[in-house]
Amino acid sequence: MRTLMLTRKTIAFASTIFVVMILASASIAEFSPDDVIGMWLLDDGNGEVAKDASGNGHLGQLIGNPQWVAGKFGGALEFDGDDRVDCGDIDGVDGFTGLTALGWCRWDGGDGGLTAPARVVSKQDPNKGDKGPFSLGSGWNAHKLTLWIHFGNWAGVHSVTNIDDGEWHHVAGTYDGNSLRVYVDGVEEAESNIGKVTGGSTPEHVAIGSDGFGREFWKGIIDEVALFSVPLTEDDISGIMDNGLSPLSAVSEIGKLATTWGRLKSR
Fold this sequence. Notes:
This protein is of the alpha+beta class and 267 residues long. The chain has a single domain, classed as Sandwich (Jelly Rolls), CATH 2.60.120. It has three helices and 16 strands. It has helices at 2-25, 234-243, 246-255; strands at 36-40, 49-50, 60-63, 67-70, 75-80, 84-86, 99-107, 118-123, 134-138, 144-150, 154-162, 168-175, 179-184, 187-193, 207-208, 219-228. The strands form two sheets. Strands 1, 4, 5, 7, 12, 13, 14 and 16 form an eight-stranded antiparallel β-sheet that branches. Strand 4 (67-70) and strand 5 form a beta hairpin. The N and C termini lie far apart (41 Å). 47% of the residues are buried.
């Protein structure tokens, strides 16, 4: 029995070291598994559910008829302008004091076509009056990436780059307890200092490809969506852009078995 226990511990330790070495060599972002709210790789390839690779169980239900297609890393989902992924009412987003929302997207609704709101990922529905905590998408400032948050008032920040040129773009928005920032293709493009606020709360659902009520739809492909309860840095975000979310999902799954993981330093 003692030999068996030692063997199991040895295997677990070796597995941990192996994953840490992979992450260090891949220049993956700093993060703790507890920082991950949800992570949808969209690699499922078939079926009506998008799995949550964070281990938190926030399965995404496909609504309408988004199509499984090839993406930036493995599979992705193609949205034709009237469908979405409903990831449920994720309480971990409500009342945030730090936030990162990110993903890959390609707009296929015509060059220069983002002149009305379209969501990449959001938890927000102004129709219900509760406003909701955040939305990452485009069209509020034509053609640009925008991060909106609500904390009793609205605040937003817009990119410099147009993201409706029919090309893939990695998009991210963060709030660090003081400033909103947006990143396009791994580069910080704009900052808005709004001071210390607490994000709103809402029973509306987190949605990929629309708002939680089923409006303001994306038309094109979305891949590798994730939400974090902390602000990732530019290095973190560019590392995720270059290496994908899969290495983070591996650490997240292992980290659920440990008391704490600390933070894995980018190199």
